[in-house]
Amino acid sequence: MILQAKNQLTNQLTLQEFINLSPGEGDITYELVDGQAIPKISPKKFHSKLTRALLNLIEQCCEGQGEVCPELAVALTRRGRDWMPIPDILYISNERLPPDWDQEGSCSVPPDLVIEIISPGQTFGQMAAKAKDYLDAKVLRVWVVDSKARSITVFYPDAAPQTFMGEELLKDSLFEGLQFTLEQLFQKAKIPLNT
Q1: Cα separation, 163 vs 29, whole angstroms
Q2: pLDDT digits (tens, 9 = 90+) for 143-177
Q3: Distance CA 31, CA 45 (A)
Q4: 91-113 b/e (C-beta count within 10 Å ≥ 16 → b)
Q5: CB atoms near residue 146 (< 10 Å)
Q6: Where are the alpha helices (DSSP H) in the chain?
């Protein structure tokens, strides 16, 4: 994304200006945060493996019930301002999918589920704050995956977060029939214990 002089810190991008920015070189993806185009951390090997394993689990459970997408931008509002994050995975049920959704565009409605996997250089605290922003934007559920702690913390709009580890069974009322332990997830992703 080529950021021209008008898009420096002194000026704030609107959602439309952000969408209209030219792509840059390489594999850098940007999110719109507080009027600025912020580079998203590029996923590493474990991150990619966890993404694939989670995608497969959710796709198998929700086939025909909605859309599961990796790295899809979603147009939301954060603290009264346009916000366009790119979650690692999002799920939108058929009930929430707009009938006129442009398959080539970003997601235009709050998804049912957002999954964020903590990348090197990010902290759980940063992801917990982002989870709150997602919930405030009417996302129904946020899962924060910590590969170092081998855990998933589930954030709810109307209850305290819950962290799942080891052999605890993760079930979520959003997904009838979906249940797995974190050890099953990490085995499916082929991530060894000593990471």
Answers
A1: 29
A2: 999 988 999 999 999 999 999 999 999 998 888 88
A3: 21
A4: bbbeebbeeeeeeeeebeebbbb
A5: 18
A6: 15-20, 45-62, 124-136, 182-188
